[in-house]
Amino acid sequence: MKLRVHRYQQISEVLARHGLGFLVGIAGLERWVPFHHGLMGHERRTQPYTNPDHLRLALEELGPTFIKLGQLLSTRPDLLPPPFQTELSKLQDAAPPVAGATIRRLIREELGAGPDEVFADFTLEPLASASIGQAHAATLHDGTPVVVKVRRPDVIPTIEADLDILQNLAVQISRRWDAAADYNLPGIAAEFAQTLRAELDYLQEGRNAERFAHNFAADRGVHIPRVFWETSTSRVLTLERIVGLKVNDLEALDRAGIDRAALAVRSAGTAVKMVFEDGFFHADPHPGNLFIEPGGRIGLIDFGMVGEVNDVLRGQLDVLLSAVARNDPDRLGSALLNLSVTRQPVDRSLLRADMTRFIALYEGRQLSQIEIGPLIVQALALMRTHHLQMPQELAKLVKMMIMAEGIGVELDPRFTLSEVLAPHAKKLLVSRFSPQALARRMAAAGADAAELAVDLPDVLRRVVDNLDTGLEVHLRAAELEPLVGRMERVGNRLVAGMISAALIGGVGALAAGDRDRWGSWEKPLMRAGLGAGGALGAYLIWTSRHTGGSHQ
Known about the structure:
Residues 475-484, 486-504 and 509-552 have low confidence and may be disordered. The chain has helices at 2-17, 21-26, 51-62, 64-73, 82-88, 100-111, 115-118, 155-176, 185-200, 202-215, 250-255, 260-278, 311-325, 329-339, 348-362, 372-385, 392-411, 417-432, 435-468, 477-487, 493-512, 515-518, 532-546; strands at residues 121-122, 128-129, 133-139, 145-151, 222-223, 236-240, 245-246, 280-282, 290-292, 298-300, 306-308. Strands 1, 2, 3, 4 and 6 form a 5-stranded antiparallel beta sheet that branches. Strands 5-10-9-7 form a 4-stranded mixed beta sheet. The protein contains 23 helices and 11 strands. Helices cover 58% and strands 7% of the residues.
């Protein structure tokens, strides 16, 4: 409790000191701000500090949880405008090293013996020191060079307190700030907490590394370090040491005779394979996590942040690529809606107009001629304009693709990710319309239809029961869209349109309330001339009114 109170006070003071009083207000933190908090908490400079500057400085001062949050937000064009993204991308996850005596104690607590006993050699001076842990060079007794990652002491209580506070602040902001209604801030906070907790668990990172090793077992051009489980726990992780040149050390690569153009294609191909073939990808492939070994083999490290492309996301990407290939603004708009998590009604006509202009920018150009990074940024700017929010896994995927193209361009200015992406995208489109894929979709649609048919008698009986007790109908055109959305699972747009028409007619008849004209409510509604669409429409409206309007 004392830690939480201290962190509330610290967060409030830091935000106020950096002139971010607006955030203090909408987060309900006013009562935590000390009366004398001062106005300056950073180095003075000739050029005035901007709001993005202040936000970055505040997050850096608040420590690892907020640095990680800022790094996440820097990759979310759907949430933040470009000036804030650019500034937050400068956040560095660095920290002073932990004392050698403390490292010795932590290893003894975790592995049952000191580092000098567990390893043939152990260097107390860290290779790198970050906010969550630090890495040390070591050698196993069989002579294998390894890297030992050790989690910083006492980092868990602070991060857990911060995550709890962030969840509470997200709820407060959602209630106090009208603009927050467009975004699921509590959901974003929960997803961030899940991602950060996964990074804290070194056992999970080890399992991630083994999964990548399995996926690339047949690829001699990629090296995933081996995990040594005998000397690994949730707080200590021992991995095979990767030795090589940094992927962005261009002069060293040239001296080593590495073909940078070919390397750009291979590094991007590694990322694309993770997404389109494996469905499991490295979500933080910045240059510090890629090494080029003698001979040109790519070595990957740091597997704490990963993403997955499940069948649902893969299907949504299929539809998106199909819409782009067909230059279809309606389908593209629908694909973006399906990919997003939106909390507000969307003006589909305005979205269609924006999609038409977006497609016109790339019309007539082959995918291999398009720069993926700018295309993604423009698409996400449109999503932000229409208050469409990306789900977490898609955000990770977008971040990874932008990083992959950035590394490729740094290696070879002529490189475009689309050249590597095009064959996979074509394969994905072909597989979408393969007989097997069509059979799976038909089977799924048949199962939905069968389930609907089985449930229909009970549905109609409940409609009859509620009509007997009286039904008040209020219908707005905007309400039709989510109702019809439920029906689209068992039919195409034509069927949904027919249901909409029947729904309007059926509800109009119900609203008229002419019992004599329609006969006894106990008779099947199909005989009454209401029609299946009208009956189901009436039922969906009734359930939406009695279950909070929630239909998935």
